[in-house]
Write a structure and sequence with these properties.
heterodimer; A: 399 residues; four-stranded parallel sheet; B: alpha/beta
């Protein structure tokens, strides 16, 4: 079986993925699976999806040679896939358009979403406004505090933002609460899951919608440079931007795939969000994958400076790519990510999201060890305007 | 015959319905659990459902979420829960105990270790909310080999064809979730339950229990008219939550006795 044939019919990527949900949701997931199967072979659906990506999102997003920063680093050439230039400022919109079109196809008038950094919440609120749907976004109370501009954005777009006070009050708890809403309103409601995780078919369909990133890169790199990169680097929280750029490159020999997890205060400190680097397999949120858990199988609290990476699990396809060795996963600490954030601002005039700054930091770490004619392609998955309050606070500045 | 089958068979002979109360192990503190289990039995429980605390109880409403959080503050894990069952079994060898919880604590312990330890502790059944039959074939086989009944859920959203498929895998009894929602949510829709149960009974020879949204003795009595067992969870957890350590056992026993009396009317 080719790797790109995964998941299998039951949603498994090797031992990972699957459908680990309460009985009440089984029928809804089955319906979604069948509807998606029909949609992805429907030329009209695909044409509308790509029309929206072009005219509403502004795709294709450019690839930019970060020449000055590359020269300063003195090694490999760093190219940036500019997902930050998408409408709403991140890669998240690629997926929410796809899922909103599915929701419309299924006759669902109400959509719900979970969000960490708020980017997926904004992207969901945006498409709900665009297609005339009611939208409820669940967000951890802790994240609401650190991402207030995105909370206001969602409200401007007409969404209801519900603060989640349970557990660690971050992304995982928002996901629990969205699942509870879905189980209660399953017949009227479409759950727009924000990352390539959750029960099957979500990891597959989110990946497929995000693959536009990697598909474009392959064409753009060939056009610009006549070759593909030596390595593709992307940050991994749930892992949707990473799988979107990795997946089309899986069969391409000679291209390393490097996922960068949130190392927080350092792996040794235990305060991080790096399940692939320091976790063990388990079941959470409807799928089996690497998780951050204690010896009793309780999910442990994660830490990252970036709310979007602050998640104890990871999409099942990444767990599979790790186990078979097709992708490598590393961790970047908060301070390294912040340094890369500032460097991209100062040397290239681009304010990156703190999430994407983890991928940038790893590129900056390995570029000097490489030759000047080697190429690193970094997925700049989002812009950092939403993070200026966090960065100011860390710099001791009151805005 | 398993303890669960023996219990249902004895009840059937008496033309009585099973009362299955739920508490979360370790709530509000580990020392309370075994006395609470005995109090439930004294109040008239036929089978006990013991919740295994989990950090991310996706199918539970706020009441049982809080119970899980209280237990987790004391660090109660799956092995501790099995210890409580073993303690309970020292003085009660009759009443079946069903563990209800989520997959990950079992995954972390390992299927073989769990099945062996659970059977040794005197557990009779296992209901794992996020292990549907599609994902639990191997686990279910290990449970069966250890003499544990794997109990599955059916829901209002379960299509007819799937009812048959799930019923084929089920052992012990079938747990019908009475509403679309989380535990302790809105009140039960009796007409919906009454409409669904005949098809479920037709698909299985096993007893059928109904739970989620049963909050008082009168509702329990109505459910018992169409079901073989009534499961009450959040309402009992609420009783524990609102009691002091001194009044807890008596309050829980009184509540369960009230439901028992209504069922036996």
């Amino acid at each position: 079986m080719q790797m790109s044939d995964l998941p299998d019919a039951k949603g498994h990527f090797g031992p990972y993925g699957g459908v680990f949900v309460a009985e009440t949701l089984m029928a809804a997931l089955d319906e979604l699976k069948q509807e998606y199967e029909a949609a992805r072979h429907d030329p009209d659906f695909l044409a509308e999806f790509h029309h929206e990506l072009r005219h509403y999102v502004g795709r294709p997003s450019p690839i930019y040679h970060a020449k000055r920063w590359s020269e300063i680093l003195g090694g490999a050439q760093i190219y940036l896939k500019r997902e930050d230039l998408n409408h709403t400022g991140a890669h998240k919109i690629n997926n929410t358009i796809g899922q909103a079109l599915l929701a419309r196809r299924m006759g669902k008038k109400r959509v719900i979403a979970e969000t960490g950094a708020g980017q997926h919440g904004v992207a969901s609120a945006t498409v709900a406004a665009r297609y005339g749907m009611e939208c409820v976004v669940y967000m951890g109370a802790e994240d609401i505090k650190r991402q207030s501009p995105n909370v206001f954005r969602m409200k401007l777009l007409g969404a209801t933002v519900v603060g989640v006070e349970s557990g660690s009050k971050t992304l995982k708890d928002a996901l629990n609460e969205a699942m509870r809403d879905w189980v209660t309103n399953v017949e009227s409601t479409f759950y727009i899951l924000g990352t390539a995780a959750g029960p099957h078919p979500y990891p597959m369909l989110v990946r497929d919608f995000q693959c536009v990133i990697g598909d474009e890169c392959k064409v753009q790199m060939a056009e610009m440079l006549g070759r593909q990169p030596d390595a593709v680097i992307a940050c991994v929280g749930g892992g949707s931007n990473a799988i979107g750029i990795f997946h089309p490159y899986i069969p391409v020999e000679g291209v390393r795939l490097i996922g960068v997890e949130a190392g927080g205060h350092g792996i040794a400190s235990g305060q991080h969000a790096a399940p692939l680097s320091a976790g063990t397999p388990g079941v959470l949120h409807g799928f089996r994958s690497y998780l951050m858990q204690d010896a009793n199988g309780q999910i442990i609290e994660t830490h990252s400076v970036s709310a979007g990476l602050d998640y104890p699990g990871v999409g099942p396809e990444h767990s599979w790519l790790k186990d078979i060795g097709r992708a490598e996963y590393v961790a970047i600490n908060d301070d390294e990510a912040l340094a890369a954030f500032h460097n991209l601002c100062r040397f290239e005039g681009i304010i990156p999201a703190l999430e994407s700054s983890h991928a940038l930091a790893h590129a900056a770490k390995i570029a000097p060890t490489m030759d000047k004619d080697q190429i690193l392609l970094v997925n700049l998955s989002g812009r950092g305007d939403k993070d200026i309050n966090t960065v100011a606070r860390l710099s001791g500045i009151e805005l | 015959m398993s303890r669960i089958a023996a219990t249902f068979s004895a009840l059937k002979a008496d033309q009585r319905k099973a009362l299955i109360p739920f508490i979360t192990a370790g709530d509000p503190a580990p020392a309370n659990t075994v006395p609470l289990m005995h109090a439930l039995v004294e109040g008239g429980a036929d089978i006990l459902e013991l919740g295994v605390p989990f950090s991310d109880p996706m199918a539970d409403g706020p009441t049982i979420q809080r119970a899980s959080e209280r237990a987790l503050k004391h660090g109660v894990g799956l092995r501790d829960v099995l210890g409580m069952v073993a303690e309970f079994r020292k003085t009660n060898t009759q009443t079946p105990v069903v563990l209800m919880g989520y997959a990950n604590p079992i995954e972390a312990m390992g299927w073989d270790a769990f099945c062996g330890a659970a059977a040794a502790a005197g557990v009779d059944g296992v209901l794992t909310v996020d292990y549907p039959p599609e994902e639990s074939g191997e686990f279910a086989a290990k449970c069966a080999a250890a003499g544990l009944d794997n109990i599955y859920l059916l829901a209002p959203t379960t299509p007819a064809a799937r009812v048959d498929a799930v019923a084929r895998h089920a052992r012990g009894f079938i747990y019908y979730v009475s509403l679309k929602g989380v535990t302790g949510a809105a009140t039960i829709d009796m007409s919906e339950v009454a409409a669904r149960l005949p098809a479920i009974h037709a698909a299985t020879g096993l007893p059928v229990g109904v739970g989620f949204g049963i909050r008082d003795a009168e509702t329990a009595r109505q459910v018992a008219e169409v079901a073989d067992a009534v499961v009450i969870g959040s309402r009992i957890v609420q009783e524990i939550e609102q009691s002091t350590p001194e009044t807890m056992l008596a309050n829980v026993k009184t509540f369960v006795a009230g439901v028992r009396a209504a069922l036996d009317k």
